[in-house]
Amino acid sequence: MFTGLTDNTTMHSTRLFVLCLLPILAGCSVPQIGSFAMGRTCSTSELMKGTGWCSPPETPPPPQPYCTQGWSGVDCWSRPDLMPNVARSVAEGPTGLTAEQNAVRLNKSYTDVPPSNQNSY
Fold first, then answer.
1. Phi (first) and psi of residue 29, to 5 degrees
2. Radius of gyration of the chain (CA)
3. 3-class DSSP state for residue 77?
4. Every domain of the chain and the residues it spans
5. pTM above 0.90, yes or no
6. Cβ 41 vs Cβ 34: under 8 Å
């Protein structure tokens, strides 16, 4: 049966690619190659921790408290969405991760990340 020229060409190009990669990867250990491929820390110490061969992805930081000015000073709330009347926050600055920080945390490109938890109260 004639398999065609493309099958042989693909097989030879794959072999050539592997042969070119061997000198580059010869000085690397298996955990180094795994860490580079996965984008996370990979080692046998992670296996001993019971988290798998590579470390789990970083979890997002906990939400920041929402602080308002009260009669007796500043009051902080962990769940402002449950407050009946949300007062203006006294804190300045971001309350969560930016899209860029979320992309770095998830080791993805900026266009592939889900929305961040940056609140705009």
1. -85, 165
2. 25
3. strand
4. 27-56, 66-109
5. no
6. no
Q: What is the pLDDT of residues 100-116, one digit of tens each?
A: 887 887 777 777 777 66
Q: Do residues 42 and 36 touch, judged by C-beta distance below 8 A? A: no
Alpha carbons 96 and 63: distance in angstroms, whole number: 7
Q: How far is CA 110 from CA 4, 49, 58, 98, 107, in A?
A: 41, 31, 17, 11, 9
* Amino acid in the structure at residue 119: N
Q: Which residues of 45-79 are buried (b: 16+ CB within 10 A; e: fewer)?
A: ebeeeeeeebbeeeeeeeebebbbeeeeeeeeeee
How is residue 47 written in tokens?
A: 């296996």
Question: What distance in Å separates the CA atoms of residue 100 and residue 104, rounded to the nearest whole number?
Answer: 6
